[in-house]
Design brief:
The protein is α/β, with parallel strands linked by helices and about 200 residues long. It has a single domain, classed as Nucleotidyltransferase, domain 5, CATH 3.30.420.10. The protein is about 35% helix and about 20% strand. The protein contains six helices and five strands. Strands 3-2-1-4-5 form a five-stranded mixed beta sheet, sandwiched between helices. It starts with 7 loop residues before the first strand and ends in a 12-residue tail after the last helix.
Length: about 200
């Protein structure tokens, strides 16, 4: 893994939020999918972790954003939501473990419109004084990759174009979107095994 991505560990992330402003809008859900190389040298999904998150004190909740993600009440007890700090610590733990196992130096966030997810993760980590395992600004964005390989930038359309299944009824939940983004990323990466030969040069 560390040789394939120049010491970086790709980790797929999706967040659901109360708006588009990472400084003031609430982080409501975060899912993480770790990846691994199988015996054949192909990139595959390893494990999925997710947390429902309570809005931080004074955060903004845009009604249109809540409607888009299908969340009526971010404070509903059935969500079993935890604080940002608790969520980040639990979600960062398996990433840090994979960093040690693989010998990678830093995690790199993989996402669909990855800069959006990275900004929310960074701001939450700063608020909670929790060290983030992710590179500060570099990402692998499946929007760009899918646009290049499949001519599609919408996640649902790119997934279908890649020959994978997509269920609209499950879309916009962090877990489903993250796992589909992970499958899309792995499918794209696995199409280019010839690149592995170049690391011997």
């Amino acid at each position: 893994m560390k040789d394939r991505f120049r010491g970086f560990l790709p980790v797929v992330v999706d967040v659901e939020t109360g708006g588009f402003n990472a400084d003031k809008d609430a982080l409501l859900e975060m899912a993480v999918v770790t990846l691994e190389m199988n015996a054949a040298g192909r990139l595959v999904r390893s494990a999925t972790f997710d947390k429902n998150i309570l809005p931080f004190a004074g955060s903004n909740l845009e009604p249109s954003a809540l409607k888009f993600i299908g969340m009526d009440d971010p404070f509903h007890p059935f969500r079993e939501a935890v604080s940002e700090k608790e969520a980040l610590k639990e979600l960062f733990a398996p990433i840090n473990h994979h960093l040690k196992v693989t010998g990678c130096t830093r995690a790199i966030l993989v996402g669909h419109n990855a800069f959006f997810d990275l900004n929310f993760v960074k701001k939450a980590a700063e608020r909670c004084h929790v060290k983030s395992p992710f590179h500060e600004f570099s990402t692998f964005d499946t929007v760009s990759l899918a646009g290049l390989v499949y001519g599609q930038t919408v996640l649902a359309k790119a997934v279908v174009k890649a020959g994978l299944e997509w269920d609209n009824s499950q879309a916009h939940s962090a877990v489903y979107d993250t796992e589909k983004t992970a499958d899309l990323f792995c499918t794209i990466v696995n199409q280019f095994p010839i690149l592995l030969e170049r690391f011997d040069d």
